[in-house]
């Protein structure tokens, strides 16, 4: 489900990315990567309040989370990374 969410996000189909991201969070509520894609999707879709709430939850689960951490640790292709970071930045991640 998370992979489907990522595919929709990268295709800029944010509503579908959110739908699959929510399903993925329900199935794996402790998996931080699922939150990251859902947060970015929500922010890109203009659902900023919800993205902020989930970012706060992610920060509880992963206190070291930052844009720099994402760049270093998340295996997105270089061409895709700026789009992913843009969504996270819109959600308030620094």
Class by helix and strand content?
mainly alpha
The number of strands is 0
Mean pLDDT: 96
Q: Treating each run of at least 4 consecutive H or I residues as one helix, how many helices? A: 6
Provide the CATH superfamily.
Answer: Tetratricopeptide repeat domain
As for the number of domains, it is 1
Index terms:
94 residues, Serine Threonine Protein Phosphatase 5, Tetratricopeptide repeat, globular
Condensed summary:
Helix 1 (2-10) packs parallel to helix 3, helix 2 runs antiparallel to helix 3 (32-44) and helix 3 crosses helix 6 (81-90).
Give an account of the 3D structure:
The protein has 94 residues and is an all-alpha fold. The chain has one domain: Serine Threonine Protein Phosphatase 5, Tetratricopeptide repeat, CATH 1.25.40. The protein contains 6 helices and no strands. The mean pLDDT is 96.
Topology, element by element:
Elements: H1 2-10, H2 14-27, H3 32-44, H4 48-61, H5 67-73, H6 81-90
